[in-house]
């Protein structure tokens, strides 16, 4: 029996090699000596299907494969998963005709025959570097709402897009909404909706309809900011007829003063002064948004603004300012990019538009 790590594997490696003997040997070394989880595929097409379907920490591939050149494979891998580390096994790294071309694809080269020690050391180095790069590229997102369902209506699609991009997402809801139905049921619904988005939920307990703009609202938000350390915050707009929404906005502006990127979402109670300049396409996340909102079952029967037709047609309308068919609009309070606290991300497909809705 092979010695195995007591903990979870140190990383998942996909090995593509058409030589069954060599592939079997490399897999064994990486498993037993490296503690990695290894899947061995004999050809590039099968490997690409694996890359499409699952997540990996390292691709280790032979340079010559049936049906596809090494360069072709790397181009396709790069298009699928740009940040996946790749190591290429080659017979003669210094003279191989393809090495020059492949070097530009940012791959690491391992010359055959390779010792078990060097293989494990290289694999460990590449897996760790890849993980560190991915972690550095991640955002930590905090969405702050006054009541259960506020954040879902305003930004569920954007939060789902963040989650899909590998970002950590948290939701802070300041009150349990006692005026809007049974408190315990709404807390359960909030948990469930956060689950649909893949977000962690923080549920405060301020007085519904009496949320102040000072303390304890500011200190409540402060506590969660300290714990979550967000790089981007989404919260209410001040352009809103609901006093709780305005006060949460004002408290959040104080508590989030050190967060580099702060955006305000649209609530059903927004006024005509709500003027978004930041639009996030949510085509792939509309269904998830509707599902998250549908969770608030105790409300959907009594609140017209939770109507799925209204939610999706609102998103459809805002897409006129960006790419795609559905979008969520945001007022940008601060979009500091390049600093340690924030940077531009593909979640926002388009730069803010100079055109301001309402001015023609
Ligand atoms: Zn609300």
Q: Quick gist of this model?
A:
This protein has 360 residues and is an alpha/beta fold.
Query: What is the percentage of strand-forming residues?
Result: 15-25%
Name given to the CATH architecture of the largest domain: 3-Layer(aba) Sandwich
Number of separate domains: 2
CATH superfamily caption of the largest domain: LmbE-like
CATH topology of the largest domain, anyone? Rossmann fold
- For the biggest β-sheet, the strand order reads 10-9-8-11-12-14-13
Uncertain spans = 1-6, 338-360
| Overall mean pLDDT | 85
The end-to-end span amounts to: 74 Å
Largest sheet: 7 strands, mixed
Helix/strand-derived class? Answer: alpha/beta
Radius of gyration: 25 Å
Order of helices and strands: EHEHEEEHEHEHEHEHEHEHEEHHHE
The helicity comes to 25-40%
**The CATH top-level class label of the largest domain:** Alpha Beta
Main attributes of the structure:
binds zinc ion; five-stranded parallel beta sheet; alpha/beta; seven-stranded mixed beta sheet; Rossmann fold; disordered N terminus; 2 domains; 360 residues
Report on this model:
The protein is α/β, with parallel strands linked by helices and 360 residues long. The protein has two domains: 12-135, Rossmann fold; 139-335, 3-Layer(aba) Sandwich (Rossmann fold), CATH 3.40.50.10320. The chain is 39% helix and 20% strand. The protein contains twelve helices and 14 strands. It has helices at residues 20-32, 44-53, 70-80, 99-103, 116-136, 150-164, 183-197, 217-228, 243-255, 286-294, 297-300, 308-318; strands at 12-16, 37-41, 58-62, 64-65, 68-69, 86-90, 108-111, 140-145, 168-175, 200-206, 232-236, 261-265, 278-281, 327-335. The strands form three sheets. It has a seven-stranded mixed beta sheet with strand order 10-9-8-11-12-14-13, sandwiched between helices. A five-stranded parallel beta sheet has the order 2-1-3-6-7, with helices on both faces. A two-stranded antiparallel ribbon has the order 4-5. Helix 2 (44-53) runs parallel beside helix 3 (70-80), helix 6 packs across helix 10 (286-294) and helix 8 (217-228) packs across helix 9 (243-255). It is elongated. 39% of the residues are buried. The model is unreliable at 1-6 and 338-360 (pLDDT under 50). Bound molecules: zinc ion (ZN).
């Amino acid at each position: 029996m092979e010695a195995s790590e007591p903990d979870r594997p140190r990383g998942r490696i996909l090995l593509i090699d058409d030589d069954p003997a060599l592939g079997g040997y490399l897999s064994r070394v990486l498993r037993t000596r490296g503690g990695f989880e290894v899947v061995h595929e004999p050809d590039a097409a099968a490997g690409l299907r694996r890359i499409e379907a699952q997540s990996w920490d390292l691709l280790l591939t032979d340079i010559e494969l049936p049906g596809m050149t090494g360069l072709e494979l790397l181009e396709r891998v790069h298009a699928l998963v740009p940040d996946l580390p790749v190591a290429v096994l080659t017979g003669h790294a210094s003279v191989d005709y393809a090495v020059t071309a492949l070097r530009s694809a940012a791959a690491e080269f391992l010359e055959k025959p390779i010792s078990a020690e060097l293989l494990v050391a290289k694999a460990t180095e590449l897996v760790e570097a890849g993980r560190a790069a991915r972690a550095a590229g991640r955002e930590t997102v905090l969405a702050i709402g006054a009541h259960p369902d506020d954040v879902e209506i305003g930004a569920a699609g954007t939060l789902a897009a963040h989650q899909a991009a590998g970002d950590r997402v948290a939701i802070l809801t300041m009150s349990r909404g006692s005026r809007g139905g049974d408190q315990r049921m709404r807390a359960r619904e909030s948990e469930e909706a956060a689950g649909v988005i893949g977000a962690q939920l923080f549920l405060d307990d301020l007085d519904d309809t009496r949320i102040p703009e000072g303390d304890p609202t500011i200190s409540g938000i402060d506590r969660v900011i300290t714990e979550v350390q967000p790089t981007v915050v989404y919260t209410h707009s001040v352009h809103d007829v609901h006093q709780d929404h305005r006060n949460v906005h004002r408290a959040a502006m104080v508590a989030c003063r050190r967060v580099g990127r702060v955006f305000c979402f649209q609530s059903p109670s927004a006024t005509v002064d709500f003027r978004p300049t930041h639009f996030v396409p949510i085509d792939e996340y509309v269904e998830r948004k509707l599902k998250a909102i549908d969770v608030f079952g105790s409300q959907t029967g009594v609140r017209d603004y939770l109507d799925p037709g209204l939610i999706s047609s609102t998103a459809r309308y805002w897409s006129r300012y960006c790419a795609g068919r559905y979008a969520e609009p945001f007022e940008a309070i601060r979009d500091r990019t390049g600093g340690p606290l924030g940077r531009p991300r593909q979640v926002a497909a388009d730069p803010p538009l100079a055109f301001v809705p309402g001015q023609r």
